[in-house]
Design brief:
By secondary structure, the protein is mainly beta. It has a domain at 11-44 and 83-124: Umud Fragment, subunit A (Ribbon). The protein contains two helices and ten strands, in the order ββββββββαββα. A six-stranded antiparallel sheet has the order 1-10-2-3-8-9. A hairpin with a 2-residue loop joins strand 5 and strand 6 (60-64). The chain is globular. The two termini are 18 Å apart. The model has no long low-confidence stretch (mean pLDDT 82).
């Protein structure tokens, strides 16, 4: 998620009574019990189209994405994000492993919604 988030940053996460929408940042608890920070690109019911290296959400171009040496699960195709699921991407798309490879993730995998990044704030203030 660089440059917004960097290794070792401390983030404040809302775990109760929150709603997740497109473009928000979440912490995801992976099956191996590690945690990753990703951005929500699409929510349940959204249509994802991938054409010629660009991704579209409900017809809106959301930019160029590549898979590097990996094969995306939806190369040059379309699909609808399932109920209670999210399509997530890392901000550093050239090196992020995310929904391009796993597919949509279940709402149950969301640990919480990031509401504040302490070190990002301190870097802006020239403290860290």
């Amino acid at each position: 998620m660089e440059p917004l988030f960097q290794q070792g940053d401390i983030v404040f996460v809302k775990r109760l009574f929150y709603r997740i929408d497109r473009n928000e940042v979440v912490v995801v608890k992976m099956h191996d019990q590690t945690y990753v920070v990703k951005r929500v690109l699409a929510i349940e019911g959204d249509r994802i189209d991938y054409k010629d290296g660009e991704i579209f959400v409900n017809g809106e171009n959301r930019g160029k994405i590549t898979s590097g040496d990996y094969r995306m699960f939806f190369d040059n195709s379309s699909f609808i994000v399932e109920k209670n699921s999210f399509f997530i991407l890392g901000d550093n798309r050239s090196s992020s492993i995310d929904s391009r490879f796993w597919g949509s993730i279940s709402k149950d995998m969301i640990y919480g919604k990031v509401v504040f990044n302490l070190f990002s704030f301190l870097r802006k203030e020239g403290v860290a």
